Amino acid sequence: MAANRLMASSNVFLHRPENPQFSFSSETSQMAVLGVKGRVSFLGKGKRSVPVVLSMATSETSVEAGKSVAPGNGISIMVNGCSGKMGKAVIKAADSAGVNIVPTSFGSAEEAGQIVEVCGKEILVHGPTEREKVLSSVFDKYPELIVVDYTIPSAVNDNAELYGRVGVPFVMGTTGGDRTRLYKTVEESKIYAVISPQMGKQVVAFLAAMEIMSEQFPGAFGGYSLEVMESHQASKLDASGTAKAVISCFQKLGVSFDMDQIQLIRDPKEQIEVVGVPEEHVSGHAFHLYHLTSPDKTVSFEFQHNVCGRSIYAEGTVDAVLFLAKKIRSKAEKRIYNMIDVLREGNMR
Q: Which part of the chain is the Dihydrodipicolinate reductase N-terminal domain (predicted)?
């Protein structure tokens, strides 16, 4: 009986250097579909999709003698890239989880000396010089320190080498850089790390399910045609890594599709009026739609997933921090973990 159940392979998304960026979904009040000409259009005749709302709110936990404490009790994090939108979102989520925020961060040379205030905490940003000395000092002061990296792609490899030299565990959500070199650096450093270009845990679960389906039912959609639309903020010029990952699964399922066929929507007006992106989230969203049609046009399937804002990624990052802290405390194997490992742990908030 158990042998017939769907099981995720142990290497799902363990090393994904070819998919450096994942982005995904959360909620929408309207549903856009791909028309015959490949254009996005609304469902007609008054039909309306039911929005999927991924709630990431964390309730406050009172800390009293003899009673439960917040899940992050005793853990300290240093958020590098704290002046960015993702860095600030992670700090807010970590603060809600009871994780101690170290008042130190690394940034660019231009940011050196700046004070970033988040959740009433003042964080001093250090530039590229003396980073190793600063990090070693912070690690000595906070022995349960975990670094969270949301910097920039060009800093990925140098940062990983720094964390390896100091021996500090880290969670990296930064995309880009030389991913092969990144994994090699961390593996040789023998430190604890969670590396994932996609920190949205529900998104990762969906992608893992797609991989399971493609591995166990290859060719199931043979002959079907595929149309893909993805909408992101105008600053994102390339196609989403999430879309590419999902498409690769459909290709294993027998669908013929080239990555350059992805319909990229970056115009804010079109995003609001056609796709249905809330105006307040035009500067930070990820709306995806995959439309499959049978050869005779009598059957169609649609997969849609939309994210507004960054809370889904921030909460997933905090879960990765708590996961890594547990591995460190239990003296588990020092290696590179990923969000599939975090999901399997089953202790997410």
A: 75-199
Rounded to whole angstroms, the Cα distance separating 100 from 233 reads: 32
pTM for the complete prediction? 0.74
Percentage helix, strand, coil for the chain under 3-state DSSP, each rounded to 5: 35, 20, 45
At which residue do the structure tokens 């893992």 appear? Answer: 208
User: pLDDT digit string (tens) for 219-228?
Assistant: 999 999 999 9
- Reduced to 3 states, what is the DSSP secondary structure of residue 194? strand
Task: Give the side-chain half-sphere CA count within 13 A for 208.
Answer: 23
Provide the token pair at 60: 């406050």
DSSP of 91-121: HHHHHHTTPEEPSEEE--GGGTT-EEEETTE
Secondary structure element (H or E) that encloses residue 146, with its range: strand 145-149
Contact present, 226 and 247 (Cβ < 8 Å): yes
pLDDT at 16 over 60: no
pLDDT in tens, 53-94: 333 333 333 333 333 334 556 899 999 999 999 999 999 999
Question: pLDDT digits over 188-230, tens only?
Answer: 999 999 999 889 999 999 999 999 999 999 999 999 999 999 9
> Which residues belong to the active site?
232, 236
pLDDT category at 237 given cuts 50, 70, 90 is confident
CA distance 201 to 198: 8
DSSP 230-257: EEE-TT--SPPHHHHHHHHHHHHTT---
Let me know: does 14 contact 338? Beta carbons within 8 Å. Answer: yes
Residue 151 near residue 160, CB atoms below 8 Å:
no
